[in-house]
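User: Good morning. I'm curious how heme C would be positioned relative to this chain. Could you predict the structure with it bound?
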Amino acid sequence: MRQAVAFILGGLMLAGGFSLSAVAGDPAAGRKIANMCRTCHGIDGYAAVPIAPHIGGEPQAYLEAQLMAYKTGAREHEMMSVVTASLSAQQISDVAAWYAAHEAIATLPAGIDPANAPQGCVSCHGADGISLLLDAPNLAGETNIYIDTQLKAFKRGKRYHVIMTAVAANLSDEEIRALANWYAAVELEIKPPAQ
Ligand code: HEC
Ligand code: HEC
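Assistant: Good morning! Here's the predicted structure, ligand included:
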């Protein structure tokens, strides 16, 4: 039941999300800005350090919303708050467009049955961690440290989102670890856009 309600909320958020991006992003301009990001996220969005998430092939609306959240302080992180402070709304749209122009391809480990994927997550994040919503992130192949940290951030109120705060509130640390392990085990490949 709770999941059904959350799913309806997700649909509403999605509908609202379209009106948020007033300026269209330019991926070519974004590629230049991505030089500021590459030491941590790679130029193609495949993360180079374990604490940073893979962002290549994520939905544009999600990337843009997170960058704006760091910029306004709604989401806090010592590195990302500094990075986004220097970016204009246009530059945020552009760099989001660059990373969103990539394609994320997920493969479950051999012998793993997608039917065993965490039931409370698949309606939005998919069994393989490729998001089914424009305002939700891919989880495929993120490190378990990253997923663990984010779920605990929602649970403890350091990060807020109407759906995820409710989802994480009921998870024990052991459950969080198991969920993180499921999505971290997925193999992720990121393909750059055709030039
Ligand atoms: C010094 C390393 C570093 C640099 C440089 C950096 N990031 Fe990050 N980024 C991180 C870390 C670490 C996180 C996870 C932060 C958290 O826990 O909230 C993150 C999170 C993000 C997220 C949130 C992703 C999600 O799945 O929620 C986005 C989007 C992002 N970065 C984009 C960028 C862009 C675009 C740039 C360049 C303009 C950039 N980052 C530069 C380290 C970095
Ligand atoms: C109804 C849809 C929905 C369901 C169900 C759901 N999520 Fe989410 N999830 C979202 C959305 C939307 C976001 C983006 C939150 C934000 O904007 O901060 C998100 C964000 C996340 C993040 C942050 C990832 C990042 O890159 O920063 C993690 C981790 C996550 N979800 C894990 C889970 C897990 C594990 C489950 C199952 C127990 C789950 N979610 C269930 C919609 C959902």
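Residues 33, 36-37, 39-41, 51-53, 55, 63, 66-67, 77, 79-80, 83, 95, 137, 149 surround heme C (ligand 1) (CB under 6 Å). Residues 1-21 have pLDDT under 50 and may be disordered.
Let me know if you'd like a different ligand tried.
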